[in-house]
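Hi Prof. W.,

I finally got the Mechanosensing system component YbdG prediction working! I wasn't sure whether to trim anything, so I left the full sequence exactly as given:
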Amino acid sequence: MEFIRNQLDGYGMSEQTIGYLSNMIMVVFIAVVCILANYIAKKIVLKTIIHIVHNNRYTWDNIILEKKVFHKLSHLVPAIIIYYSASIFPLYQGWIEKAALTYMIIVTIMVLNALLNAFDAIYRSFEVSKIRPIKGYIQVAKIVLFIIGGIVVISNLIGQNPLIILSGLGALSAVLMLVFKDSILGLVAGIQLSSNDMVRVGDWIEMPKYNADGDVIDITLNTVKVRNFDKTITMIPSYALISDSFKNWRGMQVSGGRRIKRSFYIDTSSISFCTEEMIEEFKKIHYLTDYVTTRLDEINAYNREHQINTESKVNGRQLTNVGVFREYIHQYLRNHPKIHQEMTLIVRQLAPGDNGLPLEIYAFSNDTNWAVYESIQADIFDHIFAVAPTFGLRAFQNPTGHDIANLKESTQFSRGY
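And this is what came out:
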């Protein structure tokens, strides 16, 4: 500064002008030094660190690099230069030092936060993390870190000892917790929801306790706003999503497949062994030609090997109409353009009951849109209901008034009334 003043003094300027110009020149000089130091830190030092990290045999340092710990650390360099340059400007030294120190504290907090994230990611790369997760402890450490960091920042700005602020907060804590109870609960819930990625705007959630079933349209400190499918709006307290159970359908939407799980109930009295005529008809069905031929060869080979008397259908192995029907549905779904072929696809029998034999379809559509999904599901079961008689099967249905009227008419006709 003295050198600059001496140089300007040679031009015959006034003392006030020299003071302004020297300060401006010094500010520009410090700014250039900060830019140069930042450039060296990021373009040379940081690149060197990245090169070393990428070319060693360890993997944990790659995670630290991914969490940008070193990138955040490089922001300290200009702040340190400004902090130690504050003495050049005696009138503003206190303000400059406070501003630079506040920035350094904030950067340090962000570096420690990134380190905690890196530590969590490193720990989760080991199998023990599935048995002994530490994410909850990491979150507590982050809360403590931000609280302490906030107190240190405030104490630095007001020039007071952090212990004085802590003692004052302790005296007011009871009042604060009473007045801001909902906000505190909402804040804690918001941290949990965000850190665990439990819910986002646009997610479809279902929470029967609050009659909520629709899309999340807004998340605030105290409430989560859900637009139900009937266009009503449900407001759920943020902390309720932590304390109570809810279903998030995001996984289904992201996966690209939506589950179809519905049963076709077969009248058990229509189940029978396949006759020769039925088998010949089944061979004409595109999806069953290879199956029927292969199964018949297996059954005939088994019966010959065990010298089964095939004059009675009870002996040995035989094709049944319900078994062939089940295979037909399976092949039909395998060739359906709207069924997700990379996900589970099962056609199975459930335990028979009062409503006949349930044949359950368990598959996934490749379109998660609600309207399209319902259309796909309806088309599949339209086809199943229509094709069942081809296999000699009847859908189970409890007697209706129409059935009773037909029974009465047939009885009267048989008696000659």
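The beta strands are 204-207, 212-219, 223-228, 233-237, 247-248, 258-266, 346-349, 357-365. Does that look reasonable to you?

Thanks,
D.
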